[in-house]
Amino acid sequence: MVYICVSLKATDMYEYITGTLTAVNPTQAVVETGGIGYDILISLQTYSLIHKQTEIKLWIHLLVREDAQLLYGFATRDEREIFRRLISVSGVGPNTARMILSAMSNKEIRNALMTGDVARIKSIKGIGTKTAERMIIELKDKMVKLGLEPGDEPEPVSTLSDTVAEASSALQLLGFAKANVEKVLGRLYKEDPSGSLEDLIKRALKLL
C-alpha cells in the first residue's frame, strides 16, 4: 500500500509522503513506501528533525523540469510554504531557497523578511543586495500572514562521527567547490572541533 496523498494541482501532485527513512544526509533523504524508494531533496533544518527517525512524514513539493522531476521534502508544512514563497521571487531558484532554509530557521527567515534585514538575507551565498531587497518587497506582507506552527523548529543535532566529511559532502551537493569547502571546514573545525554537523554547515555557508 502506497501512502502518498495526492493534491489536485498538476504541478504539486504530491502533498506528502509517509514511509521508512532508509537513507539520509543533510541534503537528501530516501523514503521507502509501497516497495518504492523515493529520492527526496531536503534542507538542513529538515535533516535536523528527521535524521534520528525511522518512520517519517515529509511534505512534498514537485518540481518538473524538461530533463527531470525533482521531489523536495520538508519536515513541516511551514517550511514547505516558505520554500514555495521564496521560489516565487525572481532570481531565487529551488537550490537557493534550500540553501536559505539550511542557513536559517523558519522563524529567522520570517523575521528577516518582515524587518527588512537586507544584510542578514544577503549573507546567504548567491543572494545579492538587489535580490534580497526584492525578496523583502515581495514577501514581507506574505510573511506577516504566515503564522508558524508551534514546535516546528529543529532540535540541535548531536555531534556525529566524521562530522567534517559529512559536512563536506553536503556542501558539495549544494554546489560548492570541494577545495573551497575543505579549506573553510578545516578552519572551522580547528576553531570548534566539538561543534555539531548542523552548526558546522551553517557556519560554512556564511563563509563560502
Which short descriptors sum up this protein?
alpha+beta, Helicase, Ruva Protein, domain 3, five-stranded mixed barrel
* Structural class label: alpha+beta
Which strand-content bin applies to the residues? 15-25%
List the helices and strands in order: EEEEHEEHHHHHHHH
Distance between the termini: 44 Å
Radius of gyration: 17 Å
Helix content: 40-55%
At CATH level 3, the topology of the largest domain is OB fold (Dihydrolipoamide Acetyltransferase, E2P)
CATH class of the largest domain: Mainly Beta
- Categorize the overall geometry: globular
Mean pLDDT: 83
- In spatial order, strands of the major sheet run 2-3-4-6-5
Task: Write up what this structure looks like.
The protein has 208 residues and is of the alpha+beta class. It has 3 domains: 71 residues, OB fold (Dihydrolipoamide Acetyltransferase, E2P) (Beta Barrel); 69 residues, Orthogonal Bundle (DNA polymerase, domain 1), CATH 1.10.150.20; 45 residues, Ubiquitin-associated (UBA) domain (Helicase, Ruva Protein, domain 3), CATH 1.10.8.10. The chain is built from 9 helices and 6 strands, in the order E-E-E-E-H-E-E-H-H-H-H-H-H-H-H. A 5-stranded mixed β-barrel has the order 2-3-4-6-5. Helix 7 packs antiparallel against helix 8 and helix 8 crosses helix 9. The longest helix is centred in the middle third of the chain and has 17 residues.
List the helices and strands and how they pair.
Blueprint: E1 4-6, E2 14-25, E3 28-33, E4 36-41, H1 44-50, E5 55-64, E6 69-74, H2 77-87, H3 94-103, H4 106-114, H5 118-122, H6 129-145, H7 163-173, H8 178-191, H9 197-207
Parallel strand pairs: 4-6
Antiparallel strand pairs: 1-2, 2-3, 2-5, 3-4, 5-6
Helix pairs in contact: 2-3, 4-6, 7-8, 7-9, 8-9
